[in-house]
Amino acid sequence: MPLIHVQQTPGKTAEQKAELVRELTDAYVKATGSKPESVWVTVQEIAPDSWSIAGETLAARAARR
């Protein structure tokens, strides 16, 4: 079974995440011909102080703005 894993910062609503999961599943099914029930999707939320770009956390980048 395929597993699609999304990592993102917190802030999206439950409805937005549900729509994301539906759209990713639909796209995978369309591209591969798989059955929707075989597609697993996880959404992992990572705090901005635990995610960094170019050696700087997203929290620090946001504080600079």
From TrEMBL:
Gene3D superfamilies: Macrophage Migration Inhibitory Factor (3.30.429.10). GO terms for molecular function: isomerase activity. Transmembrane segments: none annotated. The keyword Isomerase applies. Keywords: Isomerase. Pfam families: Tautomerase. It comes from the Bacteria. Residues 2-61 form the 4-oxalocrotonate tautomerase-like domain. Belongs to the 4-oxalocrotonate tautomerase family. This is 4-oxalocrotonate tautomerase. The lineage of its organism: Bacteria, Bacillati, Actinomycetota, Actinomycetes, Kitasatosporales.
